[in-house]
């Protein structure tokens, strides 16, 4: 037996690093010191996480055929009422342990990578401080044992993302992007908060283990609260919480901040906007999965599935047309997260029914590895050619050989080609979706083809597409940058088959079970085939410079044009915020305040002034006039007295 | 001499000594010394209070003292504190100290400035310790009058207008309040032994419900005006904009808290039936204030106006929490008073520092100050984050208590109002980030070269305020332990 008391150090170490670098910034002007403080704290946290995973999955986690939760640390932070309180704690269960491994691995790799990427930047220590703050928040988020704890660190994660997107704070586009990311997610957080309040009121607790316990679920089933528009209050709460998750996870229609978030330095994109923070929404749904599944017959999960599938498709279509490599990757992230949401949405609960849940978590795990790899590789490319745009690239294979191979592995993984990691997870998602609903499955299936196509469009246009001469020959010269890429490359090749069957680790009921991968079943063959078709098409169009792309674009006409402009969702939001909220709400409010409310007060003052202006002549100083007023007054009072008394 | 009276004596003595100072140096040192003593006493009081409570003293008010003042009217000098007033005293003394640091280099009539400032503080301290309605009212007026001088003489912009408006509106409100106080007085006792003593009036519970329904709105508006109750808040943006830095700090940080505090201590406690009758009406006004203040802040370009409207919004939450009538929401309202006090004082201090350097408060005319004055700019971002309710800072815990408390009411109307009020968190983020994006981020303007960095006295003020903002935000349960007994006692009239 182990007590897991070391787990508290996993978030605390990055926090210490943040405080050290943040508060004593000026003593860490030297790059290596700041970098080593960051790397050391994350490195230890990484080792501790791996050790925790080993202990939990292989030594002491299972009792009576079921993973049991541990709560090695808890602190009643703020008590609201007898039942409701915010506890800060570390909940150890299969999902949180897996997330610990994902977050620390990627964070640690990004910390190493940034040593090379941010070299020579004037805000080096600041950058490492922000990175550490982010890791601290994210780790505390995944360890949360209380819904409000998730909310707290949810906000902190949001603010670290804001700080990191706006890291180049002199660049107008970065400023706009950071504001956008914060405000859009904050908007979603408002729904999340409302959902939490509803849950707290109707379920009477914020504690996650209690919420997910059968007892509470039964109680909620019996007392679902008042019905509004055909849905019970608790169902509404779950929908609202999902909206919060959709904001963070960039699901349609709250995705608009994610592509713009690419204004941040590339390591940040890898860490936050691809591998870790954006899956927080998926994590949230997974965290409350029993609640989602059993409340209102899983109505909310249907929404999750549809939103996930639609976002996957929507983002994939946009990704086909983008020219900025980071934006392509951003849309592909959105699309892959759509997959994960879809997987959760289609999942059942008991035993093999829970394959969707398992597959979603598995995809989260593998996606983190290969997406981080893609971004870090993109960072090397951008660093080498000093541009984000594909038109400035081409023929890079001979300059960046290692990056080329690693990028290829990751592209194969995301396309779902065996034996790369993405295949194992994506395939199980499609399996689960097929059992659930044909349309949803077909969307996923079609998106798999699109994914393969746009990834290889990217790949061929960067590394092949003819020869090209560069003013400064691009090279891979930083070992700090190459090491994480290679490390993640190895994981991309191996993580899939090593961790299959993933249901031995993560399942909705926490009861491990096993399954076989049927490599030659029609479903598997079909999805591999569609991916290969996508790759083939990309090869035809982009391996060499041809005029196919422009002809295809013309053939699609309006659709291409709309996709290239991201279906004008941004413009729609701009219209709502600028034209409606700023001009139609805020401006009239401000005007109303100045002219009506304040005007009323001024009017009172001015009226008083005006009256006194009129009556001041009564004070004439002439005795006879005063005497006259006196007599008038007496007569008046006598009349009043007479009138009222008799 | 008992410890509470000292809280009035020390500032009064400081004012006395200030009369004999000759220059800025002497004046500021005297003021600082006096207020540091005051702060030390505040912490001592905090500790004494803690000891008393731990020793099992569960009286409503501790350290009480009662002295007959005007026998004819039964006016007593009656003082006493509970955890809430202790915290308010601590807040006031800290903000005055920070205000003195911020005014370290004030060049125009320094002696008179510090005299007015500390006179104002005297009134506030007196207000927080009073348990007698009449004494309380007297101290309230002492606090309001120096405001006129401070804004009228040391202010900027249309200062006479602003000062006059502020004073007139607050005086008008006081008139309503006075009527209400007299109303309470003449119904304070069933047997004709009228009293101004709050605790006694509450014990007698003799005010007929019909009278409560008449006097409650008068008293609520009377205190609400200084607590920025919509639509009686318009004195505050103009007042803040024209006031000198330290005055804005004290004003928004402390003086505006008298409103919520008075409503909590007097209006609701003495007139429970009136409260229940009028709750929904004032709840709507409070929510309008919260949302409307936030939206109005979006469109402002003057930093001080932005924060003045932000104060309207955040103090709206105090009134909102109070009207929710349960422990969680009241804890939240009290925490919000405290939290907003520190945050807004920090804001106004920073605005003063920025204004002193760039000579403008127009956000559209500033750019990139993070590169130029990193310390001040970073502090501004921290203040902004605290203001928009980032966890780890005080605003978050206060707001969450208010929202959760509001939602715990088994009443769909109140829950809906809570959701509406909670929507302000999004709008708050918009106006804070707008300022950050426009003024702090971006490429610095050429003309900023060579503007001075934050000086030690400025840094001291910033550190003090940030320390308490984080201390409340990180260990809320510690502060709630001070607040909770008071809240429980004052909720008693509503529990049956």
Task: Note down, in words, how this protein is organized.
The complex is a heterodimer of chains A (646) and B (496). Chain A has 646 residues and is mainly alpha-helical. Chain A has helices at residues 9-23, 31-60, 94-117, 124-142, 147-165, 172-203, 208-212, 214-222, 233-248, 257-260, 266-275, 280-287, 289-294, 299-319, 325-346, 355-385, 401-415, 421-436, 438-463, 479-498, 522-542, 548-556, 558-564, 569-615, 623-645; strands at residues 62-63, 66-67, 70-79, 85-92, 227-228, 231-232. Chain A has a two-stranded antiparallel ribbon with strand order 1-2. A two-stranded antiparallel ribbon of chain A has the order 3-4. In chain A, a hairpin with a 2-residue loop joins strand 5 (227-228) and strand 6. In chain A, helix 3 packs antiparallel against helix 4 (124-142), helix 11 runs antiparallel to helix 16 (355-385) and helix 18 crosses helix 20 (479-498). Chain A is globular and about 115 Å long. Chain B is mostly helical and 496 residues long. Helices cover 75% and strands 3% of the residues of chain B. Chain B contains 21 helices and two strands. Chain B has helices at 3-18, 24-54, 83-102, 110-129, 133-154, 159-185, 198-204, 209-226, 235-242, 245-255, 257-270, 272-299, 303-323, 327-358, 369-372, 374-387, 394-407, 412-422, 424-440, 456-474, 476-491; strands at 62-70, 75-81. The model of chain B has no long low-confidence stretch (mean pLDDT 88). Chains A and B meet through strand 3, helix 5, helix 6 and helix 24 of A and helix 6, helix 9, helix 12, helix 17 and helix 18 of B.
